[in-house]
Amino acid sequence: MSLAVLYSQALYGFEPSPVRVEVHIGSGLPAFNVVGLPDTGVRESRERVRSAIISSGFEFPAARITVNLAPADLPKASGRFDLPIALGVLLASGQIVMPSPDSGDTSTPPVHHYVFVGELSLTGALVPITAALAVALAVARQHPGRSLVLPADNAALAAQVPQLTVYGLKTLAELVAFFRGEGELHAHSETPLNSFRETPIPCMSDVRGQGQAVRALEIAAAGGHSVLLSGPPGVGKSMLAQRFPGLLAPLDNHQALEVAAIQSLSGHEPQLSRQPPYRCPHHSASRPALIGGGSYPAPGEISLAHHGVLFLDELPEFNRQTLEALREPLETGVVTISRASRR
To answer: CA-CA distance, 139 to 170, in Å (whole number)?
Structure first.
């Protein structure tokens, strides 16, 4: 066929958006164009895909190739679209021939049963992507009948999402061999959510005295209230705040996955933990650092403290505009980043 349609996933902040990857190969002077509001990282996928296909032992067609990332009005970022683009080129050029629905061959499910995400190296190997857990949660929620194909290094974490089939691959050639009927894909087994990374946290039992403050923190932890600690230097305000997460209930499986997914969006290595997160930004933190933002919105300290504690030490030293920005999130429990095109 000269046209191939596959499915991938985009993220705008924590909001997932399904993406349809359409690859068309037509006559004309050789060209490789990517349309659909791609950013620089997505446009550069042309060179990565070309080298990965050739390095994997396949032919890169000398024709006019057009890749459309739909919907066209949604900004696309990151290199996670490399894998569906490369697979689409091989399908559209006829190097992969899928069995027709009338053939009765059910050994290889059609490509629309999968969601593909992955960045390619020039050698054809799949390299880890950021926000893999957020992508897995989005696929499980939006495409309950589809499987997720992504780099092998991300498969163990993505497989923690319940009711989602995850396939981890190391190279592009493995995926092509599967769709050619020359190999098999083995689903990554869902490991029990008991392999959490737990680090010791300070305990309230270490505190001597300050009985009223301890009781106030216990009530706040039970009711989900905010606390203002006021007093002269050295009386233990920061010490009490550092031990506040120990009063909160351990995170359940879904909460732990949400916290790890938000960590992956910020570029940190996600860690599954039942301990509520504790964030203590410096008083010089800017408003976007606290609330979140950027051209491609990234989570701020408020979101990174999801299901946990956000401690603002030396509160009067924070910029007034930064503190004023906390008003709406405290009232609604939701952080909304508004841009000209999306919210």
So the answer is: 21
Tokens of 169: 């691959």
Residue 263 structure tokens: 């960590």
Q: Which of 229, 292, 232, 240 has its CA nearest to residue 266?
A: 292
Residue 134 CB burial class (10 angstroms; 0-12, 13-18, ≥19): buried
- What's this model's pTM, rounded to 2 decimal places? 0.84
Cβ proximity of 9 and 115 under 8 Å: yes
Separation CA 313–CA 283 (nearest Å): 7
CA distance 6 to 225: 47
- Per residue in 128-149, pLDDT (tens digit) is 998 899 999 999 998 888 999 9
pLDDT in tens, 15-62: 789 999 999 999 889 999 999 999 998 999 999 999 999 999 999 999
Compute the Cα dihedral for 52, 53, 54, 57 and give only its sign. Answer: positive
Structure tokens given for 201: 């946290």
- Which residue in 170, 185, 215, 187 sits closest to 56, CA to CA? 170
Query: What does the longest C-alpha to C-alpha distance in the chain come to?
Result: 81
What 3-state class would DSSP assign to 54?
helix
How many Å apart are CA 146 and CA 209, to the nearest integer? 56
Tens-place pLDDT, residues 151-202: 999 998 898 888 899 999 999 999 999 998 888 888 887 665 555 566 778 8
Neighbours of 111 (CB within 10 A): 19
Q: What share of the chain is helix, strand, coil (3-state, %, to 5)?
A: 35, 20, 45
Q: How far apart are CA 275 and CA 214, in angstroms?
A: 20
